[in-house]
Design the sequence.
């Protein structure tokens, strides 16, 4: 999926506007002109200017560059499922890891990913289970990363 | 002076020290090649082990593991387009392009040879000029840091692409990400959305994994050429 410069410019304008709106409510430090809003404000100003230039450029090239161009994978349900699966599994980990625990979350994510990329069901579950245990051992035991236990909190080792 | 060099070399080339260096090199190779684990982490994990060693093998182990971990970040960068350490991120695309042309050995070899040359050159500079460098380093104040950062950011714009405007916009987006957290002079939580995890800011490693590893997985997921689907 490719966006034209003009569409990117619009997105940057929107981002710049949101940033300026957010930083305008930041407090100022007494007797100082430099506060927490200054630097993000400057960046947002840069984004607005860059966005405007991109819109002008995209508008100038509108006959040769379409607003939105889809690549072949968008028409293949299997590839769309793969892309959505990758993004979905990250969101799923963020949302579910703390209450479901690392073991179940990782098992679900890995099995689903393997299935989406065409691995047989039995093999997916076995590889996902082994990978989960190895990752947990390496990161929880060896590297001391506090992976969440979730529903297994009472059985933590 | 020369007898000191001879003494130093005889201390380093003891069989025990060499064995420690070989093991530390293998360990550094592994840690550096795993995306997300850095040379700093390799050193941190090695320090408790070195408590039980004599000083020279201990320092040799740490130096070897660090140098090796920084080089071996090139291995996944070159072969998978996912840099193993932040140091390898700059030329990941070029190294992977060489791999696609069947020149992976050349790309990795160049990385290895030049990281070794760079390391040796820096050691020579440190041996010869450490006191002078320390003198300059002590005089570095906010002004010097400001101009140094400005120089780095300016270079970033001109390196990123053949179109400086897009480079500049990407740079601004990066700076915006760096604004997240409490790390500003006022200590005010910026863009944290009330999330305590975001108060510490967004680290380099999660950023790198997101930009390189996740994007490479997405690229694989969206690849419609049949040869790349592994028989699926």
Sequence:
């Amino acid at each position: 999926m490719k966006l034209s410069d003009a569409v990117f410019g619009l997105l940057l304008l929107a981002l710049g506007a949101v940033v300026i709106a957010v930083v305008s409510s930041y407090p100022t430090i007494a007797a100082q002109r430099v506060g927490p809003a200054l630097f993000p404000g400057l960046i947002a100003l840069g984004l607005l200017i860059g966005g405007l230039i991109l819109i002008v450029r995209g508008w100038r090239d509108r006959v040769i560059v379409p607003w939105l161009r889809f690549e072949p994978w968008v028409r293949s349900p299997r590839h769309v499922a793969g892309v959505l699966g990758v993004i979905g599994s990250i969101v799923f980990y963020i949302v579910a890891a703390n209450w479901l625990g690392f073991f179940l979350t990782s098992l679900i994510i890995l099995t689903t990913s393997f299935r989406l990329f065409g691995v047989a069901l039995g093999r997916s579950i076995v590889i996902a289970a082994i990978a989960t245990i190895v990752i947990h051992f390496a990161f929880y035991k060896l590297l001391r990363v506090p992976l969440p236990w979730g529903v297994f909190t009472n059985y933590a080792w | 002076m020369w007898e000191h060099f001879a003494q130093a070399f005889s201390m380093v080339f003891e069989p025990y020290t060499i064995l420690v260096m070989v093991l530390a090199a293998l360990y550094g190779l592994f840690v550096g090649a795993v995306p997300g684990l850095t040379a700093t982490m390799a050193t941190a994990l090695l320090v408790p082990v070195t408590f039980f060693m004599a000083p020279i093998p201990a320092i040799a182990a740490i130096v070897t593991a660090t140098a090796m971990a920084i080089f071996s970040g090139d291995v996944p960068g070159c072969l998978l387009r996912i840099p193993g350490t932040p140091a390898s991120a700059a030329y990941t695309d070029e190294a992977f392009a060489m791999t696609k042309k069947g020149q992976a050995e050349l790309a990795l070899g160049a990385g290895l040879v030049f990281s070794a040359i760079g390391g040796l050159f820096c050691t020579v500079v440190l041996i010869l000029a450490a006191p002078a460098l320390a003198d300059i380093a002590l005089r570095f104040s906010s002004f010097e840091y400001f101009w140094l950062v400005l120089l780095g950011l300016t270079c970033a714009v001109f390196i990123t692409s053949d179109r400086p405007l897009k480079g500049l916009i990407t740079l601004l987006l990066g700076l915006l990400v760096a604004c997240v957290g409490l790390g500003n002079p006022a200590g005010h939580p910026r863009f944290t959305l009330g999330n305590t995890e975001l108060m510490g800011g967004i680290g380099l490693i999660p950023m790198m994994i997101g930009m390189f590893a996740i994007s490479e997985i997405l690229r694989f997921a969206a690849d419609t050429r049949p040869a790349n689907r592994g028989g699926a």
Q: What stands out?
A: Chain B touches chain A through 28 residues (CB under 8 Å).
